[in-house]
Amino acid sequence: MSFDLPEACSFLFHTLLNPSVLDKAYVKNQLATLLRSICSSLAARKLSVSSSHFAPTLRAIMRQWAEKVMSPPPTHEAFRPLTVLAGWRCACKHCTPVRDFLMHSSEETWTGRIGRQNVNHVVAQLGNHAQSAAVWQGLPSRKNGEALGLEVSNPDEPHDTRPRLKT
Length: 167
Known about the structure:
Layout: H1 6-17, H2 24-44, H3 55-69, H4 76-85, H5 95-104, E1 109-113, H6 116-129, E2 135-140, E3 147-153
Antiparallel strand pairs: 1-3, 2-3
Helix pairs in contact: 2-3
């Protein structure tokens, strides 16, 4: 391919970007290879990838890669747990670490021994604000079995149907 005639390159690129079947395999096997070739050829000739003759093609290839090869963009439903958690306004010393865990931690489980009254308060907050973002259970005391602590986990799936509180 000669880059001496950029108008001809643009015509050729247009043809390559509009095949009869533009699927994942075509993007991976043809367009990705073309992208590498174009970039290395432009670099070898000290031509800019942002020139008006080449930039639209490079952008189109990258857009096709994002649409066809990469996983689909998340749905609004995927963000629902975080948007629901944003409504959790209680900033007491017992709610804050649980909410922070759910919003920011990569850990699977948070555990805290916070006392029966505080467990009830945090469980109420979880029930109001984290139905789709968490699974929790009370941690019983050794003496009488009352929940004096709490274990909170991120659900396996966004709409986990496991029981919310076991006492």
